[in-house]
Design goal:
single chain, alpha+beta, Phosphatase 2c, domain 1, Phosphorylase Kinase, domain 1, Transferase(Phosphotransferase), domain 1, 5-stranded antiparallel beta sheet, 22 strands
Length: about 575
């Protein structure tokens, strides 16, 4: 049987000796698919005592963090989603604090949060609340207090939400183990209890975390706590583990459709003709007889060759999952099947009447420079929409780019797309590192490294180079030999002398073998293709000819040697 992430919680808060409680805490445990994609979220906050709106700030911080985190895209990592939410919260608290209370610290609070996702705990911390971990009887404090001390008794917070426009959040992760016990406390608790006492009391969490939370607060009060007191106890009862047979059964609940012929109807879609067939899939042009989609649609069905391959099936479903979460005029769109049951495994996307970029390049071997720039710009816009969602295409090539009759570019085929958020979740399947077509794939893939946004920029640079020259910057690459290949850039001007130095410099930077030497964003590349970047031209001129133009160097050397030989022969003949 499969297991979901399961926890037992205990929470308790008290104003203590103070007239009001400015601490706040919250937990959200999803009951749907968000448990896998977003995880369980626990948060605690302590309104800064010097802040007039400390109580309001702590409540807003916890409530908004829980609401906003679960509103972020599923494709985002826990770190990216949480830090984006905390950054926005901080700016709002800072601005409202100045507006409502006339000071920088009008709405200020500490914040500590734990996101339990799959088999990892993601920890976020600002201020002097704390996060502890009890594992195998050993207590460890996982956070450090952001306090500055002056003398024996004077101290103040150096970090908190709402005290400055800039926010620096401590973040780190821990691998989860069943039986782990996480403890979140405000300073009214941990400032008045020794770690030995916390360890002793927390060790009883195996019985009832709620009782332990109350005991920690009561003991801190007995020890003379002068502040509000709040603690949360989270015991990890079970980690997500899927049974392979059950996982495969979930994937194969829908059967593969049979080979389709023109005139057949599949769930209301009239098949008009086959567009493409490969060993991995079939693609058909169809019409929606139920009238839910205007115009024609494209239906993609899996190949029967893989009906017993769970990894293939997962990747087939993965492509549709990606497309549903993307929104850009330069990315293919999925046609939703609202209120239409599906009897077979297939996907439906919009039909683009036009041609692939590959065919267009064959028809236009020497395109105008402006057309190349416009095409690269549109591809870059589509990639940018993916990268903002923390998705990397990983198989960008001319065959996966469509051009419609209005010359609008559409990127297709998301089967190899890497999604940062999903990469954090546990799966029973062992995924081999996905590499697209070798000649367009970044060198880091062949070294077994994970791709990044810059890997897609490499592929974009190769496409731009090919459009300008009809050639590839590193030639055709054999996947089996790619890991040993020495990537030496050949100047685009060697194939097309009309290309300006500065365009060649931009192409070289985009396709640099080292990711750190490439452009950081697609926009930078497009800008450098549009107007001269003097630094790239100067950099290119400062390099030796052998590096800038290896073929030209060896041709020149051969001519020089030939000249020397001819001179020597002449001298020998005249003796």
């Amino acid at each position: 049987m499969s297991k979901n992430l399961s926890v037992t919680l205990g929470q308790y808060s008290s104003a203590g000796v103070k007239p009001q409680n400015e601490d706040f805490y919250g937990v959200f445990v999803p009951k749907d698919a968000s448990l896998d994609s977003k995880g369980i979220c626990i948060a605690i906050a302590d309104g800064v005592s010097a802040s007039e709106g400390g109580k309001e700030a702590s409540q807003i911080a916890v409530r908004q963090f829980l609401d906003d985190y679960y509103s972020t895209p599923d494709s985002w990592t826990a770190k990216h989603a949480a830090t984006r939410v905390l950054g926005a919260l901080n700016l709002w608290l800072y601005a409202q604090g100045q507006k409502q209370y006339g000071g920088n610290c009008g709405l200020a609070t500490t914040f500590s949060g734990v996101i339990l996702k799959s088999q990892t705990a993601h920890l976020f911390h600002v201020g002097d609340s704390r996060i502890y971990l009890l594992r195998d009887g050993k207590l460890e404090c996982l956070t450090r207090d952001h306090r500055a001390h002056f003398g024996a008794e004077r101290e103040y917070l150096t970090r908190a939400l709402g005290i400055d426009e800039r926010l620096d959040v401590d973040y780190h992760t821990r691998t989860l183990q069943a039986g782990d016990c996480y403890l979140l406390t405000t300073d009214g608790v941990h400032d008045f209890l020794r770690e030995e006492e916390i360890d002793r009391l927390l060790s009883n969490a195996s019985s009832d975390p709620q009782v332990v939370a109350e005991m920690l607060v009561e003991h801190a009060l007995k020890q003379g706590s002068t502040d509000n007191l709040t603690c949360q106890v989270v015991r990890i009862d079970a980690l997500p583990q899927a049974d392979k047979a059950e996982f495969y059964d979930q994937l194969t609940r829908l059967p593969f459709p049979p080979d389709l012929k023109a005139g057949q109807v599949l769930d209301g879609y009239l098949i008009l003709r086959e567009l493409k067939a490969t060993s991995r899939s079939q693609v058909y042009l169809a019409e929606d007889t139920l009238g839910m989609h205007e115009g024609k649609v494209v239906i993609k069905t899996p190949s029967e060759n893989f009906n017993d391959d769970p990894l293939y099936i997962e990747q087939f479903l993965h492509e549709e999952w990606v497309a549903k979460r993307l929104d850009s005029p330069h990315l293919i769109k999925v046609c939703e099947r609202a209120n239409r049951p599906r009897t077979f495994l297939y996907s439906v996307v919009e039909y683009i009447e036009g041609q692939t970029l590959r065919q267009w390049m064959l028809d236009n071997p020497l395109p105008a420079t402006d057309r190349v720039r416009a095409t690269v710009d549109q591809i870059a816009r589509g990639l940018r929409a993916m990268h903002r969602m923390e998705m990397i295409h990983q198989d960008l090539k001319p065959d996966n780019i469509l051009i419609d009759r209005n010359n609008t570019i559409k990127i297709i085929d998301f089967g190899s797309t890497r999604i940062a958020g999903l990469a954090e979740t546990h799966t029973v399947l062992e995924h081999n590192h996905i590499v697209g077509t070798a000649s367009y794939s970044a060198p880091e893939y062949f070294k077994g490294e994970k791709g990044s946004d810059r890997s897609d920029i490499f592929s974009l640079g190769v496409i731009a180079y090919e459009m300008f020259t009809g050639q590839l910057p590193y030639g055709e690459i054999n996947p089996e030999q790619a890991a040993r290949k020495k990537f030496s850039y050949t100047s685009a001007r060697l194939h097309n002398p009309a290309i300006p130095d500065w365009v060649d410099g931009a192409l070289e930077k985009a396709t640099h073998p080292s990711p750190v030497r490439r452009y950081e964003t697609e926009t930078e590349f497009v800008v450098d293709l549009t107007r001269p970047n003097a630094s790239l031209v100067n950099e290119g001129r400062s390099r030796p000819l052998l590096e800038r133009n290896p073929l030209g160097f060896w041709k020149g050397l051969a001519m020089l040697l030939l000249g020397v030989i001819l001179v020597l022969l002449y001298l020998l003949a005249t003796k």
